[in-house]
Design a protein that fits this description.
The complex is a heterodimer of chains A (223) and B (137). With 223 residues, chain A is α+β, with helices and mostly antiparallel strands. Chain A folds into two domains: 11-106, no CATH class; 134-214, no CATH class. Chain A is 15% helix and 28% strand. Chain A has four helices and 13 strands. Chain A has a seven-stranded antiparallel sheet with strand order 1-2-3-4-7-6-5, covered by helices on one side. Chain B is mainly β and 137 residues long. Chain B has a single domain (11-121), classed as Cathepsin D, subunit A, domain 1 (Beta Barrel). Chain B has a six-stranded mixed beta barrel. Chain B has a three-stranded antiparallel sheet with strand order 1-10-9, with no helix packed on it. The longest helix of chain B has 6 residues, at 51-56. Chain B is globular and about 45 Å long. The termini of chain B are close together. Classes of the chains: A alpha+beta (223), B mainly beta (137). The A-B interface holds A 95-98, 136, 138, 144-152, 156, 188-189, 192-193, 196, 201, 203, 205-208, 213, 215-223 and B 22-25, 28, 30, 41, 43-46, 48, 60-68, 70, 74-79, 82, 95, 97-98, 102-108, 113, 115, 117, 120-121, 137. Strand 13 (216-217) of chain A pairs parallel with strand 5 (64-68) of chain B.
Chain lengths: 223, 137
């Protein structure tokens, strides 16, 4: 299985002293205000992008990512397993804002507290919930969900059958065509490009690798 | 900041949104773009689209969504369709937003429902007395 490299926090991010606090004046007023209110610190990535870490009042950690192109504040996408001061963290949830991107950082197990360099001495950070609510998620080790009527049932079955191996790249995106696992990519767009390049306009599965997938709740919206 | 004003119609807040396929597919000349009728549904955690419409305009099928049943019962699954939408329509000036639309028939006679994953990026003001809805994005 090919692994096509990952973007985001680079090796330097985990070294003591690699992170450093930065001023907020170089950012737009809305972001500067946010940074004044919240504690933050910055980590330079190996690719030159800057990830701002922000502690929200609830103890959650968020990043504000700035592209290396420097044109606008855009989300640098996700799925990056890394360390902050030796503690493992993982970018698990991503939403895109209008001009800013926010990504939730979470300690992966045991509810350990993440060390955020640059925060005030003596300040306690609440543990970040590490375990998803299993009643609100689907465990893909159970196989393809019953009643699935889409065009990718074979690909989903391959995903489920190879889940343990794929979880080595949890958070990345796998590209599967029929029974072939074609590669794992840090960005969904990269997987899509590769699928189109290799196979053209045919159904392929591009799936973010995770054992537990959050359930969707539609209420009475659907028939 | 963009601004859309609409009315609280019998079905709910309706608006015309621009819909197109992903950038990668579009670069290869796949898919088409069009305006569709969408309804804002704060009760849905995700946005949904009529599956036949998604296929007609060339959206490609993506991951499977797992849908929690209302009350008792087994979860069901449905295909998703990665797409881009613009809230002020094809001719608007708003940003194109990427999202996965779940291909499932809405209970209401609309092309798609806008769920909370998208509503979470908006400011939505509902004036029930005046029957008006203001969307800031």
């Amino acid at each position: 299985m090919a692994n096509h490299g990952k973007s985001g926090l680079g090796p330097a991010a985990g070294r003591p002293g690699a992170a450093r606090k930065r001023g907020y004046r170089r950012y737009p007023p809305s972001l500067a205000k946010l940074m004044r209110v919240l504690n933050y610190t910055a980590i330079e990535t190996s690719e030159g992008a800057t990830h701002k870490l922000i502690k929200l009042p609830g103890g959650r950690l968020w990043t504000i990512a700035r592209t290396s192109e420097g044109a606008t504040h855009k989300l640098v996408k996700s799925g990056v397993a890394e360390t902050i001061e030796g503690r493992p963290v993982r970018l698990v949830t991503v939403t895109e804002g209008r001009s800013l991107g926010f990504a939730l950082l979470r300690v992966p197990s045991g509810g350990r507290q993440a060390e955020v360099p640059g925060r005030d001495a003596g300040e306690e950070m609440s543990p970040v919930p590490a375990t998803p609510d299993r009643s609100q998620s689907y465990d893909w080790s159970r196989g393809v969900p019953a009643g699935y009527a889409g065009a990718l049932s074979e690909e989903l079955a391959v995903y489920a059958a190879n889940l343990d191996r794929l979880l080595e790249n949890e958070g990345d995106y796998v590209l599967i065509r029929k029974s072939e696992i074609c590669g794992v990519f840090p960005e969904r767009g990269d997987a899509e490009e590769e699928g189109l390049r290799r196979f053209g306009d045919v159904p392929v599965l591009i799936k973010r690798i995770a054992r537990h997938q959050p359930l969707v709740f539609l209420g009475g919206a659907a028939r | 900041m963009g601004r859309i004003e609409t009315t609280l119609q019998p079905l709910g807040p309706l608006l015309q949104v621009g819909l197109r396929t992903t950038a990668a597919r579009e670069r290869r000349g796949l898919g088409e773009s069009r305006d569709v009728t969408a309804m804002i549904d704060t009760g849905a955690s995700s946005s949904i689209i009529v599956p036949a419409l998604a296929r007609r305009i060339g959206l490609s099928e993506g991951d499977a969504a797992i849908i929690r049943p209302v009350g008792e019962g087994q979860a069901i699954s449905a295909p998703t369709f990665p797409a881009r939408i613009r809230l002020d329509g094809l001719t608007g000036k708003g940003e194109w937003l990427e999202l996965d639309l779940i291909g499932i028939q809405p209970a209401s006679p609309v092309d798609m429902l806008i769920g909370r994953e998208l509503i979470g990026k908006l400011t939505l003001i509902i004036d029930g007395v005046q029957g008006k809805v203001l969307i800031l994005y």
